[in-house]
Automatic annotation (TrEMBL):
<dbReference type="InterPro" id="IPR029787">
    <property type="entry name" value="Nucleotide_cyclase"/>
</dbReference>
<dbReference type="GO" id="GO:1902201">
    <property type="term" value="P:negative regulation of bacterial-type flagellum-dependent cell motility"/>
</dbReference>
<dbReference type="GO" id="GO:0052621">
    <property type="term" value="F:diguanylate cyclase activity"/>
</dbReference>
<dbReference type="GO" id="GO:0043709">
    <property type="term" value="P:cell adhesion involved in single-species biofilm formation"/>
</dbReference>
<feature type="domain" description="GGDEF">
    <location>
        <begin position="176"/>
        <end position="304"/>
    </location>
</feature>
<protein>
    <recommendedName>
        <fullName>diguanylate cyclase</fullName>
        <ecNumber>2.7.7.65</ecNumber>
    </recommendedName>
</protein>
<dbReference type="InterPro" id="IPR035965">
    <property type="entry name" value="PAS-like_dom_sf"/>
</dbReference>
<dbReference type="InterPro" id="IPR043128">
    <property type="entry name" value="Rev_trsase/Diguanyl_cyclase"/>
</dbReference>
<dbReference type="Pfam" id="PF08447">
    <property type="entry name" value="PAS_3"/>
</dbReference>
<dbReference type="Pfam" id="PF00990">
    <property type="entry name" value="GGDEF"/>
</dbReference>
<dbReference type="GO" id="GO:0005886">
    <property type="term" value="C:plasma membrane"/>
</dbReference>
<dbReference type="InterPro" id="IPR013655">
    <property type="entry name" value="PAS_fold_3"/>
</dbReference>
<dbReference type="InterPro" id="IPR000160">
    <property type="entry name" value="GGDEF_dom"/>
</dbReference>
<dbReference type="InterPro" id="IPR050469">
    <property type="entry name" value="Diguanylate_Cyclase"/>
</dbReference>
């Protein structure tokens, strides 16, 4: 059959347009092939050159995909391989994400979506990879906001509960000590009522800074709400926690918070986690001791 020159021109034009379009995509259109013997390659790759380099690098990948896998973050590599294997076995779409690392240390988060088809010699996926670094960073920012107390910048109750869950599980598994302090400012209502809410806010912020400065990096100081704070101390037995609580109490009592008459004091309940107990049992015991400190006259640490 004779070829119609005009329709060939049209086809060439369409192909050129398609090529130009894929080259400017904010992602990659690809084919990935894996033989039954494990040989893998990218027969087709087009799009964002940030992800898989220039045409010379892509030429290499069309023969051997291992150069691409060298750039996958080591923490993400096993998950990616499991996802590929599952998709090959089940012929369900491949859907996962991973970090792509550049030699210069730059990292991109890539989302991959691809449909597999069985061939005689292996599996072929047709799919897309999209750079989702901005979304991942934005999600991390939102998570940070939802875990942070606005006024003091400290972790909030929600974040402390996550830490508690993790540290209790470590303590249960390894039998390592874990202590908890519950701190409450004494007569804070009086400070607010006498000097105003803004002055009260300043006291909360200053107290948070003061405590932060006296704690180790791995100790989690959180604001639970109002004038109540907590400190979670991994690898710390009650005796050390007691010394630290006394030090905080002392430093706060002698600190000049800028209030015209007198200082600020705190009451503290401390306790150590008992292997096997639940988070709420630990919290309740620390709370009971805090209220015992209040009952006994305030500006006090109670540990049993
Ligand atoms: N300035 C300020 N005040 C707050 C904030 N959150 C809670 N408060 C106030 O903290 C005060 C807490 O009062 P109470 O619960 O009666 O406790 P207290 O006066 O410290 O008395 P004791 O704990 O028994 O020593 C209340 O007046 C709340 O309005 C805040 O973010 N900023």
């Amino acid at each position: 059959m004779a070829l119609d020159d005009t329709s060939l021109d049209g086809t060439r034009h369409d192909l050129d347009q398609l090529k130009a379009m894929t080259e400017s995509l904010p992602g990659i259109v690809f084919q990935f092939y894996r033989s039954h013997h494990g040989k893998a390659c990218f027969p087709y790759l087009a799009g964002d050159s940030k992800i898989f380099g220039d045409s010379a690098q892509r030429e290499l990948l069309s023969e051997d995909a291992s150069h691409a896998f060298d750039h996958v973050h080591p923490d993400d590599f096993p998950r990616l391989m499991v996802a590929v294997e599952r998709s090959a076995q089940s012929l369900m779409p491949l859907a996962t994400q991973f970090r792509h690392c550049e030699q210069e240390g730059e990292e991109y988060w890539i989302a991959v979506r691809a449909k597999p088809e069985r061939l005689n010699s292996g599996t072929l996926w047709n799919g897309l990879m999209v750079n989702i670094t901005e979304q991942i960073e934005y999600q991390a920012h939102l998570r940070e906001l939802s875990d942070t107390d606005d006024l003091t910048g400290l972790p909030n109750r929600r974040k402390l509960m996550c830490h508690l869950k993790r540290e209790i599980s470590v303590s249960n598994r390894h039998g390592t000590p874990l202590s908890l302090m519950m701190i409450d400012i004494d007569h804070f209502k009086h400070i607010n009522d006498t000097w105003g809410h803004l002055q009260g806010d300043k006291v909360l912020r200053r107290l948070a800074e003061l405590c932060r400065g006296l704690l180790r990096e791995e100790d989690c100081l959180a604001r639970l709400g109002g004038e109540e704070f907590a400190v979670l101390l991994p690898l710390t037995p009650l005796s050390h926690c007691q010394k630290l609580a006394e030090r905080l109490r002392h430093e706060i009592a002698r600190h000049d918070f800028g209030l015209p008459n007198g200082g600020v004091t705190i009451s503290t309940g401390i306790t150590e986690h008992r292997v096997g107990e639940l988070r709420d049992q630990l919290l309740e015991r620390a709370d009971r001791r805090l209220y015992s400190a209040k009952r006994q006259g305030r500006n006090l640490v109670v540990g049993n």
